[in-house]
Design a protein that fits this description.
Layout: H1 11-15, H2 37-57, E1 60-63, E2 67-73, E3 76-77, E4 91-94, E5 101-107, E6 112-116, H3 127-136, H4 142-149, E7 153-154, E8 160-171, H5 174-179, H6 191-210, H7 214-217, H8 223-245, E9 249-260, H9 266-335, H10 337-355, E10 359-361, E11 370-372
Helix pairs in contact: 6-8, 9-10
């Protein structure tokens, strides 16, 4: 483009305080001098082509091992000719770019872990809120703030504890996992289902501790024997509700974790626990002493019974022997009564004589008393009237 020469100013114009300057005139473009807007248009076309290429290639995606993909096109999930949902298997695939298609890659073989800590919050999570509430409300106390922001679980005997729960599950039905609960805009796929599972786990945790004493909840004493049964019941209960709602999940394991009493009541609880342990020790000592006394009494009773049984056996044995001897004598007596009578009389007299210190012999119609051994002086018996 050529620059035009400036025309000279007239004197009259200068005198009037005005100056005039003509604007340059743009000459028509020629083949040797192309239009400048052509270069800008070309750059814009190249940019748009690049954006289009990137948009088209954004439809490429990969499904890993142990995963399946579900494609949503204009609000509807793609299906097979028989009406079943289309589950894209592992590998590289292509879908229509956003916003036409949306791809959800769902892990089906990998176990998912959901931690439930609503009843065991760390004080650091609400420390700023606590300071703000205590500053704005002079009547509020830290214990009241803890009760609001760090909820407790109430046991069957009206004690309070903190506890957590972990739920391990895997996705058994990807389509039901995506369709059973309305997705919340801006949240990852399946987050709404996890929120439902968390609500179910919170409810089950509340019900579990409401049916136990604080000792059972903390695994003290008999609670250790029933804890596994309670966990299995929780697993079955949550799985039943999940199946009824059709969430497409299969619960594998539920674990109750970190049951403990609040820090504010820990000293009092420790004192009660120590007193209970002392009581248990005293009861065990008393039971041990009672057992020892019972064993000793049982041993003495067995000894007495054994001795009495031995005496009874001896008496029976002796009586049996005497009875047998009498039977033998009686048999001989039947054969010869006189001989047996004299023999028996002789034996009895012999026994009497052997055991007597002095024997007095009184004969009929005699006044002299004979003694064995004989006395120092003769004894005369007065005659009978």
């Amino acid at each position: 483009m050529t620059q035009l020469e400036q025309p000279p100013m007239l004197d009259t114009d200068v005198q009037n305080g005005r100056s005039f300057r003509e604007l340059p005139v743009i000459e028509p473009a020629t083949s040797d001098n192309p239009m400048p807007w052509f270069t800008a248009q070309l750059a814009m076309l190249i940019f748009l082509a690049g954006v289009a290429m990137v948009w088209l290639f954004s439809g490429s995606y990969q499904v890993g091992n142990g995963e399946v993909a579900v494609v949503e096109r204009l609000g509807q999930y793609l299906t097979l000719p028989d009406g079943q949902p289309l589950l894209v298997q592992p590998g590289w695939h292509y879908h229509l770019p956003w916003p036409l298609d949306t791809v959800y890659v769902i892990p089906t073989s990998q176990a998912q872990q959901l931690a439930i800590s609503d009843f065991n919050q760390s004080p650091g999570n609400y420390e700023e809120w606590e300071k703000e509430i205590l500053r704005d409300d002079p009547q509020a106390t830290p214990a009241q703030v803890d009760a609001v922001f760090n909820p407790y679980l109430i046991t069957g005997d009206r004690n309070v504890v903190h506890s957590e729960m972990s739920v391990q599950y895997h996705i058994s039905d990807p389509v039901a996992y995506l369709q059973s609960v309305a997705q919340i805009p801006g949240q990852p796929a399946g987050q709404a289902v996890q929120n439902v599972v968390q609500i179910l786990a919170d409810h089950q945790l509340i019900m579990k501790f409401a049916t136990e004493t604080v000792d059972e909840a903390l695994g003290i004493g008999q609670g250790q024997n029933t804890q596994s049964n309670n966990v299995q019941e929780s697993n079955s209960s949550i799985q039943g509700v999940i199946s009824q709602l059709g969430l497409g999940l299969q619960v594998q394991k539920i674990q109750i974790e970190s049951p403990h009493v609040p820090d504010a009541v820990q000293p009092a609880f420790s004192a009660v626990l120590s007193a209970q342990q002392d009581q248990t020790t005293m009861i065990q000592d008393a039971q041990t002493r009672a057992t020892q006394i019972t064993l000793q009494a049982s041993s003495d009773a067995q000894t007495i019974l054994a001795s009495a049984q031995a005496d009874a056996n001896q008496v029976v044995k002796q009586a049996t022997g005497e009875a047998n001897a009498f039977s033998d004598i009686y048999a001989q007596y039947l054969k010869d009564p006189k001989v047996v009578t004299l023999t028996v009389l002789n034996d009895n007299l012999t026994n009497i004589m052997n055991g007597a210190v002095r024997v007095f012999i009184v004969q009929p119609n005699q006044r002299i008393l004979i003694t064995l051994p004989p006395p120092q002086e003769q004894v005369i018996v007065p005659p009978t009237q």
